[in-house]
Amino acid sequence: MRRSGLVLICALLIGLVPPAKAGVIPTPDATWMVDGPRVQDIVATESLVFLGGEFTRAIPEIGSAGVPSQNLVALDAVTSEPVWTQKIRFASGAASMVWDLELAPGGRILYVCGSFDTVGATSRTNVAALDPATGRLLPWAPHGVSGCRSLSTLGDGVFVGGGSSIRAMMS
C-alpha cells in the first residue's frame, strides 16, 4: 500500500510540472571565433574565456581581419571581445599548437601545454605559465618536457602528460 501511494504522488507531481520547452535562437550571438582549423581547449572563469588550439587570428565574424593571436586568446566572458592575445609558436615557423590549458587553484596562473618552443619572444619548450589577467609570461620554465598533450594542477604541483609519460613539477 505504501509503494502504490508513493507512485500516485510521483505521478501527480509529474503532471503538475510543465514540460521543458526547447527553442532556437533566431540570430546567432556576436561571439568572436578563431580562423584556424581547431580550438583544442577552452577554460572559462566568470570574467574570461581562454581559447587554445591551432589558429593565427581571433575574428569577430567570418571574413573580417580580427586581431593576430597565435594559438592562444583570452576573451571577455560577457562581450566576447579579445582581452589579450599571446604568440605560442615554434621559432622556426613549423606548425605549433596549444593542446591543453589549466588554471591553477585560485585562478592565479594559467598553465599552457602543447607543441611550441616560444611564447611571445621568450624561449619555452612545450609548457608555460601566464598571468591570466594580462597574458604576461611568468618565470616558471621547467626543462626536459619533450612533449605535452595534457596537464593538471594540484596544490603547487603541475602534472604534465605527453605520449605515454607523466611528469610532476612544482610551480
Structural features, described:
The protein has one helix spanning 2-16, and strands at residues 33-34, 38-44, 48-54, 57-59, 67-68, 71-76, 82-89, 97-103, 110-115, 118-119, 122-123, 127-130, 150-154, 157-162, 165-170. Helix content is 9%, strand content 43%. It is built from 1 helix and 15 strands; from the N terminus they run αβββββββββββββββ. The chain is globular, with a radius of gyration of 22 Å. Strand 8 (97-103) and strand 9 form a beta hairpin. By secondary structure, the protein is mostly beta strands. Strands 2-3-6-7-10-11 form a 6-stranded antiparallel sheet, with no helix packed on it. It has a 3-stranded antiparallel sheet with strand order 1-4-5, with no helix packed on it. Strands 8-9-12 form a 3-stranded antiparallel sheet, with no helix packed on it. The longest helix is centred in the N-terminal third of the chain and has 15 residues, at 2-16.
SSE succession = HEEEEEEEEEEEEEEE
Rounded to the nearest angstrom, the radius of gyration is 22 Å
Give the N-to-C terminal Cα separation.
62 Å
The shape is globular
Strand order of the largest sheet: 2-3-6-7-10-11
